[in-house]
Every structure is written in structure tokens, then in C-alpha cells.
Amino acid sequence: MKKKASLTAMLTIIALAAHAQFSINIGMGKTFRKDTIDQAVFIVQYEVDGCIDTLKKERFKETMMLEVGKKSSRFYSYTKYVSDSVLAADIANNVSKEVMMEHAKQFGKSRLNEQTYKRYPVGKVTTLNEIAGDISRLRCEETEERPQWTLSADTATIIGYVCNKAECFFKGRRWTAWYSPEIPSGEGPWKLFGLPGLILKAEDGDKHYTFTCAGIEQCRSYRPLLFSGKDYEPISRKAYDKIHERYHADPVGFITGSMPNVSVTVQDQQGNKTRNPMNIPYNPLERR
């Protein structure tokens, strides 16, 4: 058993040193039960322009999806959904290390791993996240907080919809949002909501994160809104933040501390051994 775990770690831990990224996918073949909690009414696609490393100011692009249900909503990374699906298929098909690394390059790596459920359970917001694959699967459930928006007369047009401007200070960042009264939904990306219309664009004051709507699709057939976090470890926000800080300070140390019987080998994209990464840039959406 120990030998198998060690081999899995060696095959699936890849440091993309050229871009200061670190990808770990241990145990991704494991599946978790998914419960239907709602029915999606429409789906919003957001393109993210973000900055994880605030010193180098390197930007990244990512596609996020917002599924708006009758009672709740789910916000997640489409990039992560695709890359996880490909990796799970690779593991199931026992493909070579070279093929797995090629797929890792081809399909990219999500920088925004969190799934955010608003109003699930009722009156709560639930965050799901995975650190190093199956090593830590976390569920953080908190009382939902409504941003205190200040509305403005300024307008802009986004994907053909006339939008109004609103601002707030929320979760440690100052946000500017553009919402459309033409779309009668108070939803928005991440934990942002509560305006008299769907938020089509949101940007924080430091321009570290910009969410821009790229399209809206009405669900014309039944589409379940799924929740996979029942088997995740429940954890407080304070503990959740501490785990992330530990992981980003020393990812390999975090793994070996959690799984002492696993032997970790870090490789670059060419399959060569490289140094263990330390102090991975960390710029979370939520500041406290």
C-alpha cells in the first residue's frame, strides 16, 4: 500500500516553476457523492482576470460559472471542472506520466479552486475547497452576509445590457459592481449579491480580481444544482484560512505532514526533479 501511494505522488506532483505555479493531484480518482439541492434556472459565464502574485503582478485568466437556482446558487471554476475530469479519466485509464503532464499543460490549472454556494443551507454560504487532491477536502459553512451597497447613477453597457454602478466594502476588499435591472436576479459572482439586478461585472479596488460576464444561458430542460460537500471535513473560517496559509508556505511539508507514509518527488514539466516550492504566492479573494 505504501509503495502504491508513493508512486501516485511521484506521478502526479508537478511544479510548473516557470510560472510559479504548483499543481498537486493526489487521489483524484476518488469520487464523492453528489446531492441534488436545487434546480438551475439559468447559468452565467464569467471570465476572470486575476492576480495571485501581487509582487510580480502576473495575471491569469479563468472561466467561472454561476448556476442560479430557484432557492440557491453555485459558483465554481469551469477550468477546474475540465482539468479534474481529464485527470480522473487519465487515472482510470492508467495513462503514462508523460500523457498526464501533457494534459496538465493542455487543460491548465485552476487558480480559483473554491466552490461557493449561496443560501445553502438556508441563510448560509458554504465554501468547498480541495487542497492537494484528497489530502484536505474542506467545507466551511458561515452565516450569509449581505454586502452594503452604495448605488450610483453611472451606467455602462455589458454584453448588450444597460448596467448601473454600485460600490461596497466587503470581505476585506472594496468592490465596484455593474448590475442590470433588465435581469431581475440579485445574484452575482462569488459571494457578491443583493443588487436590484444581476451583477454582470465586478472588480476590486486593487484590480486583483475582475469578473466580467461573457454569456447567460436559460435552462430549457431540467438541470440539477449539485452539492458534493457532504463528505468534506466541516471547518471554521479561522481554521480554513490557517490551513491555506500552511499549505502555501510549504506545500510538500503540508503533504508529508498529513500523509507521513507518502514519498514525494517534485518534477518540472519535462519530468526532471526540482526543488520543493516554498512560499507559494497567495492572494485570496476574501481578506479578513
Which features characterize this protein?
288 residues; outer membrane lipoprotein receptor (LolB), chain A; 5 helices; alpha+beta; GLPGLI family protein; GLPGLI; two-stranded antiparallel ribbon; globular; 13-stranded mixed sheet; single chain; disordered N terminus
% residues in beta strands: 35-45%
**Over the alpha carbons, how many angstroms does the gyration radius reach?**
20 Å
At CATH level 3, the topology is outer membrane lipoprotein receptor (LolB), chain A
How many individual domains?
1
Protein name: GLPGLI family protein
Keywords: Signal
Signal peptide: 1-20
Write structural notes for this entry.
There is one protein chain. By secondary structure, this protein is of the alpha+beta class. It has one domain: Clam (outer membrane lipoprotein receptor (LolB), chain A), CATH 2.50.20. Helices cover 20% and strands 40% of the residues. The chain contains five helices and 15 strands. The strands form two sheets. Strands 3, 4, 5, 6, 7, 8, 9, 10, 11, 12, 13, 14 and 15 form a 13-stranded mixed sheet that branches. The protein has a two-stranded antiparallel ribbon with strand order 1-2. A hairpin with a 5-residue loop joins strand 6 and strand 7. Helix 2 packs antiparallel against helix 3 and helix 4 crosses helix 5. The longest helix has 15 residues. It is globular, with a radius of gyration of 20 Å. The termini are far apart. The relative contact order is 0.21.
